[in-house]
Amino acid sequence: MSGAMNRTYRIAVIDDESESLASICRALKKVGYDISSFEDGVAALQSLEAFQDIDLVVTDLKMPRVDGIDLLRKVREVNREAGFLIVTGHGTVETAVEALKAGADDYILKPLDLFELRDRVHQILEKRQPGNELRFLRRQMAAGRGTSPIIGKSPAIQRLLEQIATVAPTRSTVLLLGESGTGKDLAAQTIHANSPRSQENFLPLNCAALSPSLLESELFGHEKGSFTGALERRLGKLELADRGTLFLDEIGEMPLDMQVKLLRFLETREIMRVGGTSTVTLDVRLIAATNRELARAVEQQKFRMDLYYRLKVVTLIMPPLRERTEDIPLLVWHFLASFAEEHQRPALEVAPEAMQALVQYSWPGNVRELRNLIENLVIFSKQPSLHLSDLPPEVREAPPTGGAEGPPPPRLFEDLNMSAIEKQAIVQALEKTGGNRLKAAQMLGIGLRTLQTKLKDYGMTER
Ligand SMILES: Nc1ncnc2c1ncn2[C@@H]1O[C@H](COP(=O)(O)OP(=O)(O)OP(=O)(O)O)[C@@H](O)[C@H]1O
Ligand SMILES: [Mg+2]
After folding, report:
1. Residue 462 lies in a domain
2. Using a 6 Å cutoff on CB, does residue 252 contact ligand 1?
3. Which CA distances in Å does 190 have to 245, 269, 291, 347?
């Protein structure tokens, strides 16, 4: 494991069943971890200060007097960084969900599969304690050298990129939430491309597109003769994605009985083909996405709570475009350049008032809507630059974002002195273009030379 190069990870194991305790300790020692063991929660609490130096706690859930969740809360008081893996017997999944809510990283069911145990331990350590591989990837993505096609400089997008870099190398299940067109597909692909699985399959499956029975055989596959028309064995998407990534799009639309089967897979990592009699063990990373409010669907009992908690351990939120207007010019330039190349058309310039309208429009269809509009404009434009009149009416006449219900628009200028206004406009243009003078000049509708002279005149040459 990558972190082992620096130092050995320390793991505390707590279980009141002595045989189970011994076998967990043995399994973890064997792969080189440094283990401390405690025969129950009370014994662990008596040496609480020893937990300050622990990287991961593996604890049984049901123990007399001090159970796994009590222990978690106490340990977190002395060590906020420690990972938690809860071990639980069959039939206590509800409590395991409680444990996740209380901040545990993961849970695993008894009887324990020791390989699975090591796998989960490894994942939590990777996630919590960025190893070398992970730090490397992060640095690469931060320097813009990673394989991220996600464009944006807004804090929301930068945070998203950081989160993607963190989770990509792990096997964690990821839940992507966001409105239509915000880039969920793109994010799923980016996660896969930056994972150790990048050379294996990335398979998307849209849960809303198929009838329940078809969805089941699409996911799990079927044996020959399992239903009329099943003329031969067919592998499902899960099996085809073995060692790779399965992207379950519109998971919110998955029928309840399929949700049960998916949860079972996530817990056991095993499937049974429709009409089959034996199980197949798979190594699939799952990414799920939805534009529905899953929490609401859980309340309405349309989505299973246990599956929801299982999926949402790592949740990435895709911000709508109207909440990150500073990304709009970047996206406009990006799509202008790439469609100009694709359609062999000259690259268009954008008149300042056209750009302003593009920035102010609320983009209900998010990046997809922007992308489609720009492609259209590139194909149909007759002039070398885009003007307000080239834009569709809804964009041209858009009230500033926030609309009628929003707060009243701020007074445009506090100071009506002409050069103060000009200075403000220059500062804003530079901010919007990330300091790119050529683009700022374009946005202001003046030449680069003029901008440079003004910057000098106003003493604004330092940044
Ligand atoms: N930040 C971004 N940078 C560049 N392109 C983007 C970005 N976000 C989205 N796109 C592009 O916008 C289009 C829509 O994105 P995508 O299909 O990923 O959205 P989605 O969230 O999956 O939408 P839906 O919910 O409708 O499935 C794609 O062509 C994608 O490449
Ligand atoms: Mg999509």
Report:
1. yes
2. no
3. 11, 24, 19, 27
